[in-house]
Amino acid sequence: MTTFLFSQILASVSFALDITAFHFHRRAKTLTVLACSTGLLAWHFYLLQQPVAAVLMAIAACRFAIAVVTLRLWVMWGFMVVSMACSAYFWQGTASLLPLMGSLLMTFAAFQGQSSRLRGYTLCGSVCWLLNNIMAGSPVAAIMELAFSGSILLAAWRHYSATRRSGWV
């Protein structure tokens, strides 16, 4: 099995996790699934020799896991500073900006108390990662981000519709 094929298998498992993540009503369950998914993507990007994306995904896995237990702003800012420092250290030119922007948006998202804000900012970060995955030449990761974005939109619609039917809107 080639390294590329193995990286695509890891991205496929991550894909399956991502699709389910935003359909849970509990924020903690969503973040736990995202922590597992991003951990796999860190290995995926490492195998594709994309150090900035790999490090940022490893940081993201830790970030999602920690955001399950705390929403403290100093923790969020700490993750943002670490992400920027790692991006600077592993800098590969302007192509490193997309994973950094995606990571910063998703860091902000993870520390939002409301699920709707978590979904909205994650969607914006997902667009940055989609563009990065296309540029990195990873077809499975690019398709995964497209599906992930669609899943976020579908989950938001489902939750909005349920809230509207119950009379809370």
TrEMBL record:
Transmembrane feature ranges: 32-48, 55-77, 89-111, 140-157
Pfam families, per database record: Imp-YgjV
Record keywords, A-Z: Membrane, Transmembrane, Transmembrane helix
Record protein name field: YgjV family protein
Organism annotation: Kluyvera genomosp. 3
